[in-house]
Amino acid sequence: MAGAVAGTAGAVTEPFHLPPLREDLRLLPGPVSRGGAPTWTLHDPARHRFFRIGWLQFEILNRWGLGRSDAIADAIDAETTIRATEVDVRSFLRFAGQAGLLAPLGEQGTRRLCAEADRRRLSAGSWLLKNYLFLRVRLLNPDRLLSWLLTYIGFVYTRGFAIAVGLLAVLGLHLVGQQWDAYWHEFQDLFSLEGALMVGAALFGAKIIHELGHGLTARHFGCRVPAMGVALLVLWPVLWTDTTDAWRLTNRRQRMAIDAAGMASEIVLAVIATLAWTLLPDGPARTAAFLLSSSTWVITVLVNVNPLMRFDGYYLLSDWLDVPNLQDRGLAMARWWLRETLFALGDPPPEVFAPRLRTVVLAYALATLIYRFFLFMGIALLVFHIGFKALGLFLMGVEVWWFIARPILNELRVWARRLRAVRPRGRTLVTFGVFALLTALLVVPWHGSVSGPAMLRAGHEATLFTDEPGRLIALVSNGTRVSAGDAVFRLESPALDSRQQIVRAKAAALRSRIEGQAFDPQNADAIDVTWEELAQALAEERSLDAQRNALAVRAPFSGTVLDVVLTLRVGQWLPRREALAMLIDPSDQMVEAYVAEADVGRIHQHAVARFYPANTESPLNLRVTSLDVGSTRVLEERQLASPWGGPLAARRDTAGKLIPASAVYKVFLEPRDGSATGGVRRMPGIVVIEGDERSILGGLYRRAVALLMREAGL
Asked: What's this model's pTM, rounded to 2 decimal places?
């Protein structure tokens, strides 16, 4: 049986009797390869699978009836120019067994089929873990419907239709260009919940057209379309069409036309919708045309053209290169190349390509590996956030293990097995040396400094506000040196002056009344009431005096006035709590730095540090004075926040406050050794603090644990 011939390429064995092939298999002519050699397509109708085989495999199949591996090899040698060996026959037999192309014979064959079925059968838990990211559901057999539609829309496959669409596209884009402001404004309205729902509805309609494009084009070239359905891709519904029958086609351009038909259908839809948007009046129809126009153009370019995912762009590239199963074959080539580059094992490549094609396939495979890593990490984060915390952590762990860690460990096992079977070579020793050096850099705790964005500012600074509304009558200029208590700005209030005069006159009148009542026995009983009124008037007078004094904005400490509002003018009316200027004490400086949560434990009070200004001035020597015990909830230094071009990732909340995207802690530092710069109010930069030594790998581990604990609510 197939499992009995899994020998190595160089093994010398006795001739082998071949089991019969399944009688339902069909051999079809295939396209001519890039090298000019003929190919054939082997069709398995039971599984609706196709296999591309070359000239040697065709000759082996053609002589399968001889029944013996030696007889087939001898016949090919005698009757063709191919130099075939029994190893070639056994290799094809092994492929046929793995692909399920052999007919079961007797009880042993039946047991083999049952064992294969048992290996493919998954438990409920295994099935769920394997399929929760991608589950395909068949909905209908559209073959007859597509044939009926072709009788009415066959004109879309004519050159005249393509020219007409091109002209309409030019016209539509020209008209949109004339109304670009309106188009862009309507596009910005899509960034809302209601807009997202409308875009989803438009994309659903566009994807139906997309899949019909694949199916109709396949039927146009005589292929059968047995199924259409929906797949759940990370719980997101995606339509699909089975165009596997396109493997029958020997014309590569026809296969590429089927690959591109979905995108072409969406582009035609986008062209019509774009032109309709420019012509329709405002209303639901125009909104629908805009949604189809904008979303279809964007999704077609960003998703479908991407060849690194198994969408239309991938199949177009595969057929253009004439390399079926491009991704699988490319990844096999990449694994071989990596092993040979690192260890020079001397293994033959998994298959032979022309030099230029081999470079293209290898570059594609390496790009796919990098893209897959970041894609699966992104999906892991996505599934972490779509459910409650415990489920999210579990699904993220499954995703990281199944798609990232597991393939890497499997490859490492292959490396270990192959290295045990060969003598160490110079390149292997160099690889292990580089690996040991990188491991030491990651594991050895040599990394002792902690860095973070920081702001150099005055130790004493204050914003000067108006305490009372009034008219400005005096102000100082930028750079004026003032002492504590000096009036920096003076205001006047005619209404306050008038009120103060009235209250003073009232108080004087009440004093005169009291003097008169003291000598008038008839009004002696009213003197207590008059004293109470006088007390109220005096209290009001004191309050007005305090308000009048508050019209002078005074310096709370000695310093320099900076950032006087440029629009201030004498005679200008100012409201209460109006910011006027900043007062700083340049002789007293400090630095506020922000460090990551994982690095806080490495910093100690009085630790030395250096501040590197953003303007490339000389660094400033510092020492740590204190650390916040809690993480920073709101960033007060706008210059350090990402919305203002700073290095700290932050977002705005509904109140406009800057909220850090990750946990950061504030560290306060002061200059040492008389290294204050003097005269500098605020200057962003980077601070480097001497902390406890820690390895890079240990730091990454602590950051990951802190992130997981925070997200899990622990």
From this structure: 0.67
